[in-house]
């Protein structure tokens, strides 16, 4: 028996709000090990009526197995193709929704498991109304790792009001359409690392409210790119770090997006970014035209450090690598852009443009000295000098010519061995040392999706 998806126990207890940890890497994740949980109880979904025939709906079997193991244990989905036909929740719902639990772990023990959403069946008809693949709500001390989320009818993974969780060794591959976000998180004390996203929308995006989140070793392989937002009224985001982010043929390398609104974003580090072939690179846009203006003077951005960005953008004269458009009603303060060397792939010039953006250090690029923090108009400066040291490596797996479409089934990817040039995984792939002789690719295939 080769288990492909194990859902470790949901011990139902009230969610605790944890204090922010000094080193998030040490404190997130489940509280007990799989062997410990296995010794308590094992609930194999095939003992609850699930059949690996790719056609019979396993929802009741999955729920029954969960309930039976909810006081502690491991829910096992053995190797095979299973169909999930019943979602839960509002709007399009969710195929798997996990809430109000602690000490939870969901992973594929061979690293070859996947949830195949068959979203193309919806997208082919121009519909984005299908379910999301996976959603967690008010979960604490948990992990999601070592499997793929493929072709979701809507978002792939959303984490809402969770804490002390980590997500790692994941490949997310969606259709070539807006609205098929990779990972969206609004939570506290989270570590998201070693994740690859191919889609046409959000790669790994932080929303409000969020505190103390570390996102690192991220490969945005033909996606919208990583972002923060969109930010609305009473935005409350602090202590967010993105580190080692590789972005290829995406809309942007990092975007903070809002239009009006209120509240604050404070203490953000965007460090070690490499980009190639992207439209925008650093793109702070507090007049984002894809969003209807909200009430409020604008979200106050404070202490945003952008460090060590290299690579190239698609066309630096059309969309320059630094665009920092802050709200005139709430000028940005403490913006720092250092070791930033990006150059254009088209033509021989590029621009930097800032609006109402202030720095506390030496005003570089288009930033202004932070003493008065008054609104000022966008002031693009154009350069024909390629910055020294902009050359940056590429990933061997960059999509060569096209992203995945919307009309045909999207193949399940294998998990990459690295998500950023020269950087190894934090945690070795599940099953890396115990892979079966002829590994089976397995999936949960929602063939018929019901709207809740
Ligand atoms: C979850 O982990 C945090 C440390 O990150 C700890 O303080 C908290 O007590 C844990 N929660 C539970 C329910 O054990
Ligand atoms: C800058 O980023 C590159 C990867 O692009 C990395 O190799 C290098 O160590 C980083 N430099 C610093 C000072 O962190
Ligand atoms: C990224 O693109 C490459 C090249 O097509 C592909 O092999 C790889 O699987 C893609 N990654 C994902 C997660 O789809």
TrEMBL record:
GO terms for biological process: carbohydrate metabolic process; cell wall organization. It is found in: Secreted. Residues 1-19 form the signal peptide. GO terms for cellular component: extracellular region. The keyword Glycoprotein applies. It holds the Pfam family Glyco_hydro_28. It comes from the Eukaryota. SUPFAM superfamilies: Pectin lyase-like. Belongs to the glycosyl hydrolase 28 family. This is Rhamnogalacturonase A.
